[in-house]
Amino acid sequence: MKLHEVRVYPSKEPLKREDQLAWKIAGVAADRVGVTKEVTNMVINRIIDNAAVAVASLNRRPAVSARGAALGHLKKMGGAQIFGAPARVTVSPEWAAWANGTAVRELDYHDTFLAADYSHPGDNIPPILAVAQALEKSGKDLIRGIATGYEIHVNLVKGICLHEHKIDHIAHLCPAQAAGIGTLLRLKQEVIYQAVQQAVHVSFTTRQSRKGEISSWKAFAPAHAGKLAVEAVDRAMRGEGAPSPIYEGEDSVIAWMLDGPEAVYHVPLPEPGEAKRAILDSYTKEHSAEYQAQALIDLAFRMRNSIEDLEAIEKIVIYTSNHTHTVIGTGANDPQKMDPKASRETLDHSVMYIFAVALQDGFWNYKSSYAPRHAARPDTVRLWHKIETVEDPEWTRRYHTLDLSEKAFGGRVEIVFKDGSRLVDEMAVANAHPLGARPFGRKDYINKFKMLTEGIITTRESNRFLQAVQDLPRLGPGELSALNIILPAGALDESRPGIF
């Protein structure tokens, strides 16, 4: 890996194309280095993971709306499949990316990577898969494209912080998706360079989508990035250019939306010929909640075994990182995070609610744990409102360290009882994390898939998909429709009418 310095250049100080971050990203994407067996296996795991959470959300309102819009763009030739729909139903690939990306993201239940910024790199898969299906690429082509998407996404997240400037994290996702599509299609570096720049230019949006009363746009945002990425690559393939230099320009994103004209960032990227392995740095979720809550859910399960009466609790203090405290904790100063009538999208960004329910129930379920009747239960509200978060500098340091062996996303919990006694425990990483007590492997991904799809798809369809995806390297050109999952006839809800 090589660290690349990225800073702003005034217009009077021209920056050579070869020295621009977008050009270097394009170089990584254009490098035809092979994919290791370990990375190939993890790509398969993450396709299974995405499919699981997508199928479970297919009849939730955002996924229904996205699918309805996509079905307004049917395409008989050169189309891509939509999760749940029959294989014969194909739509324009950018709209398949929109529908499938929304379904994947709706439950906030797939993979994550956290560093200088944060991300859900599994969001790279839907647009890359859609283009692969539309242009009849092979399983190996798809694997290469996904490996690139993860590589660029994870390394941008390591090097450039967006959230401190209230920029939503899809600003790193969209160029990664464009780069992954470029690798999939074996495009030249010049073409990928223009596509990456266009993708960056159109994907900088604010974090209001994850603040206050969080709406369904949280699910749509990564899918919107994927749609934009497909369009950016299409435009570049037709010979069109993009705003340049997109990162370093005097009036571009770093100068005006991030750290400003004096900013200096360092972004790691693989050297030519170096394998793309960043997907191995990411981790999935065992529980359907914001990633920073994963370890705290597991910790709540452990601590409840030492508590006889939850009503005897006076207060609970969670000492954690700045990010956890200010984004999903009381440091966010969002009253909605304590509101029994809050949306699911808000509750899964409230660690106070999440810890309370995990402590009460001893299990986590993507449906019942967020049920309005649970959020409104008097005993849940009482416990929930006794919880606060506090930033601890050491947990903040461990959150941001690039030393993956020391990196932590959990916290220390102190439970104070009415009699003055205390119960204190801590957990650095979730059980399912690669360094956790029970790291996720292929068997766990398959079990998660079966659990989330039970009663939604047939056993025969489940077995067919799992066999096909695990045979991904051997799927030939035009065979990637096998990765679509079909629901029984009449099982898909129809959306309300719109324009399309």
List the keywords:
19 helices; alpha+beta; 10 strands; 60s Ribosomal Protein L30, Chain: A; 2-methylcitrate dehydratase PrpD; single chain; 500 residues; 2 domains; 9% strand; two-stranded antiparallel sheet
Layout of helices and strands:
Layout: E1 2-7, H1 21-30, H2 37-57, H3 61-70, E2 80-81, E3 90-91, H4 93-105, E4 113-114, E5 118-119, H5 125-134, H6 139-159, H7 170-184, H8 189-203, H9 217-237, H10 253-257, E6 264-269, H11 294-304, E7 313-320, H12 322-328, H13 344-347, H14 351-361, H15 372-375, H16 378-384, E8 387-391, H17 393-400, E9 411-417, E10 422-427, H18 442-453, H19 459-470
Written overview of the protein:
The chain is an alpha+beta fold. It has 2 domains: 2-281, 2-methylcitrate dehydratase PrpD (Orthogonal Bundle); 291-427, 2-Layer Sandwich (60s Ribosomal Protein L30, Chain: A), CATH 3.30.1330. It has 19 helices and 10 strands. It has helices at 21-30, 37-57, 61-70, 93-105, 125-134, 139-159, 170-184, 189-203, 217-237, 253-257, 294-304, 322-328, 344-347, 351-361, 372-375, 378-384, 393-400, 442-453, 459-470; strands at residues 2-7, 80-81, 90-91, 113-114, 118-119, 264-269, 313-320, 387-391, 411-417, 422-427. A 4-stranded mixed β-sheet has the order 8-7-9-10. The chain has a two-stranded antiparallel ribbon with strand order 1-6. The chain has a two-stranded antiparallel sheet with strand order 2-3. Strand 4 and strand 5 form a beta hairpin. Helix 5 (125-134) packs parallel to helix 7. It starts with a strand and ends in a 30-residue tail after the last helix.
